[in-house]
């Protein structure tokens, strides 16, 4: 037996470090310390050590008879006394507690002649747990708490911590389409997030405006502008016939109308245009016999090529078709040839690539040449080239140790004869970027450094390597202009003061004027020294890179700790930083509008940005799509927040009569994890590290972001944090901290104990006050300012607690356990708490699921926290019901019969959600069904309920009202 287990002391002593001056009992291993902050007249005082697990309960009381501990429950003084204020008084402690028992110290002041076992008579009380299991108990007046959430706190074994290819000799116009197109002062944008085709007028750089739009039924992938017609190729949202062709036209009044809609079979891959013909490539999965492929037979996956022409009426007509065996096509177009490289269905490990070349120069727009097979992988369209009647290919090996190969084939020969090749390029290294330029090829491989290979193709039968340059990192995309190569790639070299690996987007400029001695002019790595990781869409899609050789600059989007547009200058024959512009959401493209003015285009915003004249400056800002997923209803106003990939960055105010157009809008430069509102303050926050930015919606003032804790989190112990609460100018968050104890050195058995604390900051000063120990996760604040928390007992029962927040402590007022047999859930509505208890076994075999659904029930209980969580009403709902939103008398619940489970012999059970129901709740009456919804909102912070309606924030679909 020990007084207190040593590891528990680490937890308890951390609580003792908090400055406390109140009615309090604390302890060290040998001393009890008590204090009193208020003069208390005529009280009986008790200082008691007790063991709840002894039989009978063992009480030891300190008495003034000899200032010693005596057996039994006795007051310190024989009669009631007037207890003065005192800061701290220490008393020796010599009691011991068994490791597995629940022992406490209690310091209680009661009304005269009242038994100390009646909490109603307590004028002041303080309890201090002396063991891990004791920390799970709750007594009125308790101010130090540990948590023991049932079996979830036990685990066994080791502690595993989870730590477009450009054509050569262009004689016929070819095009690789994009998702946007600029035509004069109009920007045409196929916006997938908004599910709209948008026409944007950019004549006024300071005020771009949406001129017209058309709703889309699919996910837009590519856009062509052919005369007055706009051709969209889309993937279908549902179904196997997944390619939609839509022809649109803008009317005189600015509106956009549909000229034609056409469906092609198969999933859309890509398309190319040559002259007035569009070559659409789709993927089909079906059993098809390829008659002209002797060895193919029956295949499971085929590639369809549809040749389309737009007639004078603006309708697409099918001109020709072809079908190829295989999957995962790579597509490249040249003045007179279409090349498709894809994997051979006969190979199981992607070791063979079959190359299909089509002659486009004949009367028949799709003449197939012999199929070519190469023993390796063609990474992208940039690894393919047609010059004259020669096909040039760079492919990676089937066996990585063999090295890559550059091969040249004769398109005029009956069997696509090999003319010449260079093989075993960089054995053991991966194949990355390739760029063909006339009679040269530039190839990048990588293992630890980035070898740039310069290969001479002037003698097709004897291609040879002229030069090699090794630099750290590697290149993904390369672009050529006047003996200069501009490359987008990765810099994996850490700086001197950096530890660990780095992986950052980099831009490189190479001098290849002397092919035998290529050299690196310079490399520029945005955010070097600031972040360890960054990524750009331009690494995968060259259309995301704006490269203007004529005006000497480049721009590309970068994502890391935020969203950025990086602009660089090439004017001095080197890459120089011309500005890193932070954006609130990611962008997909940038484009030139005027000298030193760029457009930054994303599915949520268009911004016009001036650069090259000092600091980057926003000229105009147009919102294109709004991802509304946070909602709050207050009086007649709806407050909604929009998020990008970096979190919430915009706040809107709507009136209920018009949810299409916000009355007011506020924008932040960067996104945040969450948002809470407190009267006229909107508080945006990040969790790790805790950072806040406060917006006063009354004045429009946006304060600078404030860090509430050190921004360097490298030494931070990652604790669980609760939801954030903002009240009366204070910022609160619960934090769960753990302490681990080895119960047996011979067995891999661990037991961990959790301690919740409430952290609090005054928003005005960003000053943190001492942490308060709290029992469980914070749930809500009452109108009075008391805190409600929820936790689970060691037996797995839900327990609710009400605490008064004092200057230094959170003192327990009431506590109630809810005997739930199954899963329980808690939600807060103003001044009431709703609890659901699901009964029945959710781990059921599939063949018994239907029967279980009929028997399963959910108890819905309404509690008054002010009155000790007394029960106001109780209702029984059939099936498993999950709370999604609550108000004082209306609840929205989702019917859900389980999830994907595997539990012993139980088989996987699919989710069977049957929609949402909105109920009116009245005491002693059956719940009244007000409305059934076929689909349910998933998030709980995007629903607002009133007695007659529900409001929902549905992402890019906007705000939706449901009435009953």
Give the end-to-end Cα distance, rounded to a whole number of Å: 65 Å
Percent helix? under 10%
How much of the sequence lies in strands comes to over 45%
Shape: elongated
Mean pLDDT: 85
Whole-number radius of gyration?
Answer: 35 Å
Largest sheet: number of strands, sense, barrel closure: 6 strands, antiparallel
Q: Count of DSSP helices?
A: 2
Number of E strands: 78
**Low-confidence spans: pLDDT under 50, at least 5 residues?**
1-20, 150-170, 287-299, 742-747, 842-849, 897-913
- Please identify the structural class as seen in this structure: mainly beta
List keywords for this structure.
964 residues; mainly beta; 6-stranded antiparallel sheet; 2 helices; 78 strands; disordered N terminus; Beta_propeller_containing
Give a written overview of the molecule.
It holds the Pfam family Beta_propel. InterPro entries: Beta_propeller_containing. This protein is mostly beta strands. Among the domains are: 6-144, no CATH class; 820-933, no CATH class. It contains 2 helices and 78 strands. A hairpin with a 5-residue loop joins β77 and β78 (959-963). The longest helix has 11 residues, at 6-16. Mean pLDDT is 85; it is low at 1-20, 150-170, 287-299, 742-747, 842-849 and 897-913.
């Amino acid at each position: 037996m020990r007084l207190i287990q040593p590891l528990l002391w680490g937890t308890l002593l951390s609580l003792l470090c908090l400055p406390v001056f109140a009615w309090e009992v604390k302890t060290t291993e040998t001393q009890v310390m008590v204090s009193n902050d208020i003069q208390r007249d005529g009280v009986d005082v008790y200082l008691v050590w007790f063991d709840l697990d002894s039989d009978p309960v063992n009480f030891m009381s300190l008495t003034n008879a000899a200032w010693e501990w005596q057996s039994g429950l006795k007051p310190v003084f024989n009669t009631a006394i007037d207890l003065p204020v005192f800061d701290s008084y220490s008393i020796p402690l010599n009691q011991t507690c068994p490791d597995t028992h629940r022992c406490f110290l209690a310091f209680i002041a009661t009304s005269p002649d009242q038994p100390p076992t009646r909490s109603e008579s307590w004028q002041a009380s303080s309890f201090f747990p002396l063991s891990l299991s004791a920390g799970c108990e709750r007594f009125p007046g308790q101010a130090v708490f540990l948590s023991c959430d049932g079996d979830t706190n036990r685990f066994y074994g080791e502690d595993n911590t989870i730590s477009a290819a450009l054509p050569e000799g262009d004689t016929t116009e070819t095009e690789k389409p994009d998702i946007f197109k600029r035509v004069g002062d109009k920007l045409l944008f196929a916006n997938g997030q908004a599910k709209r085709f948008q026409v944007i007028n950019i004549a006024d750089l300071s005020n771009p405006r949406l001129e017209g739009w058309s709703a889309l039924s699919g996910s837009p992938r590519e856009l062509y502008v052919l005369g007055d017609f706009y051709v969209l190729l889309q993937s279908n949202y549902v179904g196997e016939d997944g390619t939609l062709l839509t022809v649109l036209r803008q009317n005189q009044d600015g509106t956009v109308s549909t000229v034609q809609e056409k469906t092609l079979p198969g999933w859309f891959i890509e398309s190319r245009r040559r002259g007035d013909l569009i070559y659409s490539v789709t993927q089909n999965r079906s059993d098809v016999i390829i008659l002209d492929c002797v060895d193919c037979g029956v295949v499971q996956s085929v590639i369809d090529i549809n040749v389309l022409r737009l007639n004078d009426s603006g309708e697409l007509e099918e001109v020709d078709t072809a079908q190829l065996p295989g999957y995962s096509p790579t597509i490249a177009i040249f003045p007179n040839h279409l090349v498709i490289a894809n994997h051979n269905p006969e190979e199981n490990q992607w070791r063979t690539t079959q190359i299909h070349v089509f002659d486009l120069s004949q009367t028949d727009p799709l003449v197939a040449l012999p199929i070519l097979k190469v023993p390796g992988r063609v990474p992208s369209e940039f690894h393919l080239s047609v010059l004259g009647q020669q096909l040039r290919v760079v492919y990676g090996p089937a066996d990585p140790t063999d090295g890559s190969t550059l091969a040249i084939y004769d398109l005029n020969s009956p069997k696509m004869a090999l003319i010449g090749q260079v093989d075993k390029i960089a054995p053991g290294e991966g194949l990355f970027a390739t760029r063909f330029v006339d009679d040269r090829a530039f190839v990048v491989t990588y293992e630890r450094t980035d070898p740039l290979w310069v290969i001479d193709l002037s003698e097709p039968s004897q291609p040879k390597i002229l030069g090699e340059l090794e630099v750290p990192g590697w290149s993904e995309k390369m672009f050529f202009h006047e003996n200069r190569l501009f490359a987008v790639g990765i810099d994996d070299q850490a700086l001197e003061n950096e530890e660990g690996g780095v992986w950052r987007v980099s831009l490189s400029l190479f001098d290849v004027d002397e092919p035998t001695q290529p050299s690196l002019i310079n490399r520029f790595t945005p955010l070097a020294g600031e972040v360890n990781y960054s990524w750009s869409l331009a690494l995968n899609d060259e259309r995301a890179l704006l490269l203007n050789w004529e005006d000497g600059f480049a721009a590309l989007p970068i994502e890391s700790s935020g969203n950025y547009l990086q602009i660089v200058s090439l004017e001095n024959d080197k890459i120089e930083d011309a500005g890193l512009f932070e954006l609130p959401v990611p962008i997909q493209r940038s484009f030139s509008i005027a000298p030193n003015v760029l457009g930054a285009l994303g599915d949520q915003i268009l911004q016009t940005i001036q650069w090259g004249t000092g600091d980057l400056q926003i000229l105009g800002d147009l919102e294109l799509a709004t991802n509304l997923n946070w909602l709050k209803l207050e009086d007649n106003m709806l407050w909604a927040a929009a998020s990008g990939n970096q979190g919430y960055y915009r706040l809107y105010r709507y009136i209920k009569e018009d949810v299409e157009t916000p009355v007011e809008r506020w924008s932040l430069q960067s996104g945040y994890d969450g948002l809470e509102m407190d009267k006229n303050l909107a508080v945006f926050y990040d969790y790790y590290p805790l950072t806040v930015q406060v917006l006063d919606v009354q004045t429009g003032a946006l304060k600078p972001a404030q860090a509430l804790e050190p921004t360097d989190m490298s030494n931070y112990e990652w604790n669980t944090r609760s939801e954030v609460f903002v009240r009366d100018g204070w910022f609160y968050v619960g934090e769960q901290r753990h302490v681990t104890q080895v119960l047996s050195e011979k067995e891999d058995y661990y037991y961990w104990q959790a301690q919740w604390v409430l952290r609090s900051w005054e928003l005005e000063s960003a000053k943190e006050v001492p942490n308060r120990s709290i029992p469980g996760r914070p749930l809500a604040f009452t109108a009075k300012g008391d805190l409600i928390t929820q936790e689970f007992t060691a037996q797995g029962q839900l327990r609710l607690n009400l605490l008064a927040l004092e200057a230094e402590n959170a003192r327990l007022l009431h506590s109630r356990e809810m005997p739930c047999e199954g899963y329980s859930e808690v939600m807060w509505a103003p001044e009431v708490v709703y609890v659901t208890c699901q009964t029945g076994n959710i781990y059921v075999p599939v063949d018994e699921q239907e029967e279980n659904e009929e028997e399963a029930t959910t108890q819905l209980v309404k509690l008054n926290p002010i009155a000790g969580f007394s029960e106001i009403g109780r209702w029984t709902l059939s099936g498993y019901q999950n709370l999604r939103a609550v108000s004082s008398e209306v609840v929205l619940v989702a019917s859900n019969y389980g999830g994907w489970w595997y539990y012993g012999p139980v088989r996987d059970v699919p989710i069977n959600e049957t929609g949402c129901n909105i109920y009116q709740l009245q005491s002693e009456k059956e719940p009244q069904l007000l409305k059934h919804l076929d689909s349910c909102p998933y998030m709980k912070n995007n629903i607002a309920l009133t007695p007659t309606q529900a409001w929902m924030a549905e992402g890019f679909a906007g705000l939706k009202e449901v009435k009953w």
